[in-house]
């Protein structure tokens, strides 16, 4: 298992002047912000397919969950591709200048539970320390997964908005630590911190973790999973033909096949 962790920051994947449909002179150029794996890789694969449609794609790659939305709000991007629906909705509600809309869902990245010391959730001892992201939008997702696995019981109706305060029964007295940025959870795992670590699929892949081989439990990727990763745009660009073509290409059979073959189930096309 290769132990490499991507640092925080911004990497320009495709250089060029930002002449995008939302803020530049060239209406056939789209500037899209994305986190590295798998989002920017999927966009790279789609780039020649978009070129066939007369659209030049420029990708800026980010290694955090905050900067891509700021760049979109500031007009530096035409779209971004890194976040699921609950996170997008939370960000819109929390930031007055985030006038964004969901232009379409592309894929799902199942969250996995990883442990250096235990090979199954059943082996976790009483009082085990569980490390999870400080991203509140992921807490309901994680807790519903752990409830489905029989580790905890949530208050009735908590649903995807569940927080740690909604844990009604915790028979093993699990100790939850939700003070980690999502991007550094693989590093915490590699350092042997905690008894179990919940890691988002994209960050697991960046750290050379194979969710299907290395995780001791994996979130369901059923069709009704609300945590589909989407193309987010400013509301003023809703209906833009180039963006609609971007979503169409990302949902094409060619891209779906690439996702299935490249990530072997660690990333799943929406509706698959």
From TrEMBL:
It comes from the Bacteria. Its main location: membrane. Keywords: Lipoprotein, Membrane, Palmitate, Signal. A lipid is attached at residue 21 (S-diacylglycerol cysteine). GO terms for cellular component: membrane. It is found in: Membrane. Gene3D superfamilies: Periplasmic binding protein-like II. It is a lipid-anchor. Pfam families: Lipoprotein_9. Belongs to the nlpA lipoprotein family. This is Lipoprotein.
């Amino acid at each position: 298992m290769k132990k490499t962790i991507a640092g925080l920051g911004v990497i320009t994947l495709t250089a060029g002047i930002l002449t995008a449909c939302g803020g530049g002179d060239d209406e056939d150029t789209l500037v899209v912000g994305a986190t590295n794996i798998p989002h920017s890789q999927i966009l790279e694969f789609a780039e020649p397919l978009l070129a066939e449609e007369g659209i030049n794609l420029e990708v800026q790659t980010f290694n955090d969950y905050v900067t891509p939305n700021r760049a979109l709000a500031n007009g530096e991007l035409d779209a971004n591709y890194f976040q699921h629906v609950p996170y997008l909705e939370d960000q819109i509600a929390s930031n007055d200048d985030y006038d964004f809309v969901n232009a379409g869902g592309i894929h799902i990245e199942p969250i996995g539970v990883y442990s250096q010391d235990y090979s199954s959730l059943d082996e976790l001892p009483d009082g085990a320390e569980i490390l999870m992201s400080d991203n509140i939008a992921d807490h309901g997702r994680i807790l519903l997964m752990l409830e489905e696995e029989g580790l905890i019981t949530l208050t009735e109706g908590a649903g995807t908005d569940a927080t740690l305060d909604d844990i009604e029964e915790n028979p093993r007295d699990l100790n939850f630590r939700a003070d980690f940025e999502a991007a550094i959870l693989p590093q915490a795992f590699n350092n042997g911190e905690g008894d179990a670590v919940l890691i988002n699929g994209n960050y697991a892949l960046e750290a050379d973790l194979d969710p299907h081989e290395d995780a001791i439990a994996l979130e369901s990727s059923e069709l009704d999973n609300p945590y589909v990763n989407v193309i987010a745009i400013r509301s003023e660009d809703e209906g833009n033909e180039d963006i609609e073509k971007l979503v169409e290409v990302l949902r094409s059979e060619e891209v779906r096949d690439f996702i299935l073959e490249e990530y072997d189930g660690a990333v799943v096309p929406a509706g698959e």
